[in-house]
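Exercise 7.
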Amino acid sequence: MITYFLITTALLYGLRQLHYKGLLKQTAGYYDKYNTAFFKNNNFNTLFLGSSRAEMHYDTKLFDSLTGLNSFNLSLAGANPQIAFAALKTYLHKSKAPKYLIYEVDYHYLKYKSSEIKEFNNYFPYLSEPELRGQLSKVDARMDHFYYNPYYSFPYTGFKNLSTSMHGWLNIPNRTDSFYYKGYLNESLRPSLVFNRVTPCYTFFNVNDRAYLDSIITICKQNKTKITLVSSPIFAGGKVDLKNKDQIIAQLHNIAKINNISFYDLSSLSFCNNRKLFIDHYHLNYLGATKFTTCFCSLFNNKIATISLK
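Solution. The predicted structure, written as tokens, is:
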């Protein structure tokens, strides 16, 4: 019985390593993004950080072409300030600190203290990085169990990850791999926004999110990185969804003032009522991202980096 258990355990560890190696062989798509962010030594001079909104709104290829800089989009789906801090800390463990960091503030979502890591199984191959595992464990204590115990991690792996690993071994790209460029996700598959009735609500900063936003600002200052807070477009400028937008924006301006940094509320740009540029109330498609990134580059060049627009 003990021999059977030992053999099974050894096989599970071996199979898991083969699975992870297939994921780490990815040279495109979101796993290549994770490989770059967590395992490579990078020298990007500009980082974008935030949730899926930042991942889909800041077109790194367009940004680089309009600023002459070398950017990477470190944003992760579902990342609140705590997850964003974990990503940044892990990135800086091996990579040079950027000159500029743009942090996307999801002011509509600040009141929720989440103990969930969205698509947490995507991080399994990277838990060997102690900094990432330690930070993610503060959100979800299961991360240590996922790292050490294959009996625990395998049931959460999922068919999608197994398929992606197989694509890595066979050097066959996934359908969505070509939509990623230096961390930016070009959202051109999902349909444009249709009418969606919502009930406006109030938002506010929960204590945990505020603490980790402060930590992101602090780590940037320690590394002499110029951090800028930005809120990118929301459909109808967010007023359809929020009752107290003006108050939360005022609070963000105050946080920026306290820390001697800048906050730009770009959530109500002139095109924010155009449904064809959104897939839902909070996410731009690739057409919207092109318009927004172009606008943002003008602001970046003239107010953040004082570079002449190309």
